[in-house]
Amino acid sequence: MVVSYPRPDSADLLFHALADPTRRDIVATVLRGGSSVSALGRRYPMSLTAVQKHVAVLERAGLVRKHRRGREQVVTAEVEALRDAARVLDRLESIWRDRLERFADVLAEPAGGPTP
Predict the structure, then answer these.
(1) What is the CA radius of gyration of the chain?
(2) Domain definitions of the chain by residue range
(3) Kind and range of the H or E element at 93?
């Protein structure tokens, strides 16, 4: 079975972006409400440039977007991208559950093999 994704390469971008704990925390933070890049920078023990790079990875994956509000760059979450990731995981879970059910059927067969 082939698992289809919402957009070509989108799953790779999504899961690469979510693979890092700082980026996951940034997504969780902006899901609660938009945050300026500078405010995000104060949350982490790293340079503002490093935080900007994390935000850029999230933006390429479609998980967040930036927009100007005065002099600030405000980061907000793109919920649909998270739904895309959930759909991919749901499909993979479905494949795994089907496999487990087939395995359970094999274990339930009598020792001599399937009955005709």
Answers:
(1) 21
(2) 10-108
(3) helix 79-108
Residue pointed to by tokens 């001599």: 112
pTM: 0.76
Q: Which residue carries 């919402």 as its tokens? A: 6
Q: Which fold has domain 10-108?
A: Arc Repressor Mutant, subunit A (1.10.10)
Collect contacts of 66-73 with beta carbons under 8 A, ≥24 apart: 66/37, 69/36, 72/36, 72/37, 72/38, 73/36, 73/37
Answer whether residue 26 shows pLDDT above 70. Answer: yes
pLDDT tens per residue across span 42-80: 999 999 999 999 999 999 999 999 999 999 999 999 999
